[in-house]
Design a protein that fits this description.
homohexamer; mainly alpha; AhpD-like; 6 helices; 64% helix; elongated
């Protein structure tokens, strides 16, 4: 299921359980994704990554749905199958409609296309976009 | 300035000028980015790409700012210097605040990190994220 | 099993068998990975790639374990499922502990994050890092 | 110099200065890289990223030099010019010799090559590399 | 089968059917790939993408086989499993021999290797390759 | 000019000079690209990479121009500025016309777009594209 297997709640150390508990409380679910169960083999990485994700994904200047759609866009660009599946599910849970998903994908496609046209044509940055 | 140089308006064919005119009218500016001047060497690509970008970036289920921020996120993930510069400028023009830019970058960073933790730990997709 | 199928030892030409023999002798195993059996359809690529890998992965200024961990780090960054699986196994065979794997993944995650923060914020290279 | 400019120590808030102070103390230098001065526009990202990098790059199961070389390998694979420059400098400071750099680059090259041969030939993961 | 499922011909709207019909007529087949059936959930993306692909892949200054091999090369570099499978099949249909596939993969491998040696060694562009 | 500087012919060891001589003889030029002068700091990598590139880029089942265009396509997808510049120059020397370059870029753009639509929509490989 993962390089070192998945650590289920019942088999987890108190340190790992504390993170699992916070994940479930924050996300208001009663289960933890495989991602967390896999990296739980390294409790320091589990805690650091969860604390960071929790802080970064909290609604602020950007709302929760926008943040999840950004995650999907990046995961699709990076060809990360796991992340596309889990964050598409998260975006839907945050309210993403089919129409929003369609437009999201359309932007992902165009950005990846024009990123390569810009590099392939060796386009120099316009003077007015340069940072002084 | 670009592989085949930049085609300025005064030197452009009527076909290319028509696209430039539509770009300036749509974006309500009086200039055209280097990107379009570079790919104008291939009028078919210029027209097709512009028509696609115009359609995709038009506000719809997602607003203009969200679309520009998605573009920045993907361009940063892909290390496209030109696109980061031009779409960060476009996002600012669409109203992106410093706080929004900060949160955008934070998500970009975390997504690129967890994309690799998921692949490196060989995490299998959770059953409930699988598409039936 | 692969685009052109896998070429097993019993079905291999003498030229391909010679490479398989060298792989098994060098690695002190009695089997050859699917990777080699797949590219064996092009004996020139099989030979060239094996000779290169053999030369590059030989312990020298860097030891075998460090080299395998570098391979895992790059494969995880590139989302190459096959390479992550095979080189994680190779790194373990070379002595990688769970603690080392955990720290390896932590660096992979952070590097992929800060790579994008650096590009997204358009950070210019510090004068003292520039090559004269 | 960066999207939002660089925040120098003299212009920094107490919160940002505290991070700069910790960076300089931890690294035993009297200056802070442009990277930190650029992301300092978002103090939350500055603090979180620094705390994570400090924790991850601390010598543990892997020594400081190995960690810096992993950083260089990933940055080269990702084409992040800033990160290649800064982490190559950091690896040298941690003792990387020219011979080690040469072998590091050789592994980076081969891994990026075989990552694509594996995907292009659609090689299936060997049964013995599969996680049960 | 895909995020939103696949839309079969029998279930498709007239708008989607018209695109499917054009795909089958242009490609002289009696079926439509999963790719099109998946993006058909967004008819605007379906139409735009098909019209673009049809225009771009039409033989012109480059023949159909060369264009399909370019597609395979890029898909392998990007680790897109779906695209590698479908475009390798398309390249074969366009006449790609095993020998051509072998050389194609060899170039893909070398290009991905030297792309990273060039970035990792921080090689500056030769004056004579610079665009004036 | 590069991490370890460039090694000019006059300063090169006999071993490095032998490779430079072969490069100039094979390519019928009287100069050597910065790429080779940069990696010459590691004569083993210089020799291995040159021998591999020479073998792979030699016309065979694919002609020289097709191979150079594949190199440009991959380099543009990977955002390798050095490689885009040097291989676009090489492709021109091998006879690439402006029209061919235009179609090459158009394919690069579309492939990078549809690679992400395929991953983002989580499209499953069609049964008939699967390798038995």
């Amino acid at each position: 299921m993962a390089t070192l297997g998945l650590i289920e709640y019942r088999d987890a150390s108190p340190e790992v359980r504390a993170v699992y508990d916070d994940i479930m409380a924050t996300r208001q679910t009663d289960s933890v994704n495989n991602f967390w169960k896999a990296i739980a083999h390294d409790p320091a990485t589990l805690r650091r990554t969860w604390e960071s994700v929790k802080q970064v994904m909290m609604p602020g200047a950007l709302d929760a749905l926008t943040k999840e759609m950004l995650y999907v866009a990046i995961s699709a660009s990076n060809q990360c199958g796991y992340c596309i599946a889990s964050h598409t599910a998260a975006a839907r849970k945050a309210g993403m409609t089919d129409a929003q998903f369609g437009e999201l994908m359309a932007v992902v496609g165009m950005a990846n296309e024009t990123n390569r046209l810009a590099s392939g044509y060796q386009v120099e940055i316009d003077e007015r976009f340069r940072i002084p």
